[in-house]
Amino acid sequence: MHRPMSKATKLLLALDRELLAIDDFGHDPLREIDALITRLEPEIQQVELRGRAKHQAEIYVARDRASVKVEVLNRVMERCHQSR
After folding, report:
1. Which residues are CB-contacts of 13 (< 8 A; sequence separation ≥ 6)?
2. Residues 1-43: tens digit of each pLDDT
3. From 77's CA, which of 51, 63, 68, 83 has a CA 20 to 30 Å away?
4. How many Å is the maximal CA-CA distance in the chain?
5. pLDDT per residue over 52-76, tens digit each?
6. In this model, does residue 84 exceed pLDDT 90?
7. Contacts 24+ apart (CB under 8 A), 48-56
8. 7 with 46: CB under 8 angstroms?
């Protein structure tokens, strides 16, 4: 039997869709944050309403994965610049 997606999973998928729709972040990628939060407000509210610890845990893990991804990509970029 197929289990429905959690509210946190729906939020994370919506965030990924929104990020994939942006072709170029320019020189200040963080300027998009407020607009993203506005567009994700329905999903964010659903997570807030449910308020389950498992949703928070899922979001923490996703955040930590994103932090690791940023660090890996930064190191790859650094190595590419050094090899030139």
Report:
1. 5
2. 677 889 999 999 999 999 999 999 899 989 999 999 999 999 9
3. 63
4. 53
5. 899 899 999 999 999 999 999 999 9
6. no
7. 49/7, 50/7, 54/6, 54/8, 55/6, 55/7, 55/8, 56/8
8. yes
Distances (CA, A) of 41 to 77, 78, 84: 33, 36, 44
Tokens of 60: 């923490």
Structure tokens at 57: 């845990």
Tokens of 6: 């959690």
Q: Hey, what are 30's tokens?
A: 């963080």
Q: What string of DSSP letters covers the chain?
A: -PPPPPHHHHHHHHHHHHHHT-S--TT-GGGGHHHHHHHTHHHHHHHHHH--HHHHHHHHHHHHHHHHHHHHHHHHHHHHHHT-
Contact 7, 47 (CB under 8 A): yes
